[in-house]
Amino acid sequence: MNLRVALIASARFPIREPFAGGLEAHTWWLAHVLRKRGHHVELFAAPGSDPALGARALPVRRPRLSDAARSDISMPSAMWMEEHHAYLGLMLDLARDGEHRFDVVHNNSLHHLPVAMASALRVPMVTTLHTPPTPWLESAITVQDNCPVTFTAVSSFTAGAWQATVPAARVVRNGIDTDFWKPGPGGGDLVWTGRLVPEKAPHLAIEAARTAGVPLRVAGPISNRAYFREQIAPLLGQGVRYIGHLDRLGLVELLGSASAALVTPGWDEPYGLVVAEALACGTPVCGFDRGALSEILTPDCGLLALPGDVEALAELIPRATKLDRRDARRRAEQFCSLDRTADAYTDLYEEVAR
């Protein structure tokens, strides 16, 4: 059954390489695999998204507000207003005639308006929960007596975090294309990949690598410049290098050459796409036991220290580098494949469409 899917993505970051984060990467891969399977996918995303995905730009534009409105004490940031208008315009458009164009709407964004306005649609909606509960999204769900949305969560941990608000969220884990993320020879420096922000805590990875006396390469977008300037830049040198914001091919080469990947969340990681990418490249993982990391890793492909314990993490690094790379790759193939993700979403789309 070929399906017509409206895939709602981020209005803030384009769905294109190099990806702004795991959410954008996941959206790109999901759209790609669904189209490859013959489904019609219309991706609603920020301007500048990959045209090969048939993306339609969300109408991100500044609202026309009077000087009085702009100067009011309740005026939020310009970016908040632009995102609000983008999703409001999209939902009003889908409410007009979405049922004639689509079989299902998949809300893969973090914004609350698609959920808040779902009852205005005459086409079913699936929403993926990518984060712990947020006040805007939680209120959009609870304000409705019978929220008409089918929810999925990217891990059992995330489903549990939403249990009080969404008791029946299905777990559909994010997946990666194991044909693209190929194993490499390993044996090189440690690596840390991801967004350089406090909640990902790359500064703790640097401290652990330096304590262990092992060189570290750090890659990813500088999403918080103040954090990078104050807590990362001063730690560079002496075996620690920041090598920039890499595209997919660059990440495959980097991860495949590493002896181990450090993953150091400073928050409860909802899934951990960087873990799956490292494993697919045959690279064992060494990190903090926060959020969903323990769902992905097994002792033969990754080792976890207590959250924030840099000394314990440093002690695990030599052991992690000796784990069998074939076991890491096997875990990715069995647990993290994009085909499993696509199968689960396709089955769900067909179910709600009926």
List keywords for this structure.
alpha/beta, Rossmann fold, 2 domains, 7-stranded parallel beta sheet, 3-stranded parallel beta sheet, 14 helices, 13 strands, about 40% helix
Overview of the structural elements:
With 354 residues, this protein is of the alpha/beta class. α1 links the parallel β1 and β2 (40-45). It has helices at residues 22-36, 67-70, 78-101, 113-116, 135-142, 156-161, 202-212, 225-232, 248-257, 273-280, 293-296, 310-321, 325-335, 338-353; strands at residues 4-8, 40-45, 55-57, 104-107, 125-129, 149-153, 170-171, 190-193, 216-219, 240-242, 261-263, 285-288, 302-305. Strands 3-2-1-4-5-6-7 form a seven-stranded parallel beta sheet, with helices on both faces. Strands 8-9-10 form a three-stranded parallel beta sheet, sandwiched between helices. The chain has a three-stranded parallel beta sheet with strand order 11-12-13, sandwiched between helices. The protein contains 14 helices and 13 strands. The chain folds into two domains: 4-175 and 338-353, 3-Layer(aba) Sandwich (Rossmann fold), CATH 3.40.50.2000; 190-335, Glycogen Phosphorylase B (Rossmann fold, 3-Layer(aba) Sandwich). The protein is globular. The relative contact order is 0.13.
